[in-house]
Amino acid sequence: MSWNVYLSGEIHTDWREEIEAGTKAKGLPVAFSAPVTDHAASDDCGVTIMGAEPNKFWHDRKGAQLNAIRTRTLIEKADIVVVRFGEKYKQWNAAFDAGMAAALGKPLVILHQEEHAHALKEVDAAALAVTEQPTQVVDILDYVINGKLPA
């Protein structure tokens, strides 16, 4: 079986690449998907494709709705959803993705630093695992897929 893992959240660090490299190194049968991580493309996709908007609200709305097509489809197809909350920015979209995954009954793994534990307590409570490092996500995937604990 190949597992579909959706990687949601923070786009300013290489956490996705760390998880992908770690699963590849372990030979895990995992296919990854994610939102569009090119910030400018994600923000401007709606107006680039469907036309300019003078009002920033409608500019953002067009982009959010196009991005939602991708996000909703990939979360629905995912076997596991991993959501990363970064240090620098508040990722409201990541919280929304976590809520959507929880509502769909998707196994949810949350990734954030210890200092965000209080702010994310409700999100953490919906998760089946809460981690601080991408390597822990790789170890979780190895355990879930192969029943192997880290050496």
The CATH topology of the domain at 3-35 and 77-146, please? Answer: Rossmann fold
Question: How would a textbook summarize the main sheet?
Answer: 5 strands, parallel
The amount of beta strand, in percent, is: 15-25%
Count of alpha/pi helices: 6
Q: What's the CATH first level of the domain at 3-35 and 77-146?
A: Alpha Beta
- Please tell me the overall pLDDT: 95
**In CATH terms, what is the architecture of the domain at 3-35 and 77-146?**
3-Layer(aba) Sandwich
Structural shape: globular
Overall SS class: alpha/beta
Kindly report the oligomeric state of this protein: single chain
Q: Order of strands in the sheet with the most strands?
A: 2-1-3-4-5
Key features of this structure:
151 residues, alpha/beta, Rossmann fold, five-stranded parallel β-sheet, 5 strands, 50% helix
Structure report:
This protein has 151 residues and is of the alpha/beta class. The chain has a domain at 3-35 and 77-146: Rossmann fold. 50% of the residues lie in helices and 15% in strands. The chain is globular. The model has no long low-confidence stretch (mean pLDDT 95).
In short:
By secondary structure, this protein is an alpha/beta fold. The chain is 50% helix and 15% strand. It has helices at 15-25, 39-50, 56-77, 92-103, 121-126, 134-146, and strands at residues 3-9, 30-33, 80-84, 108-111, 129-131.
What's the arrangement of secondary structure elements?
Elements: E1 3-9, H1 15-25, E2 30-33, H2 39-50, H3 56-77, E3 80-84, H4 92-103, E4 108-111, H5 121-126, E5 129-131, H6 134-146
Parallel strand pairs: 1-2, 1-3, 3-4, 4-5
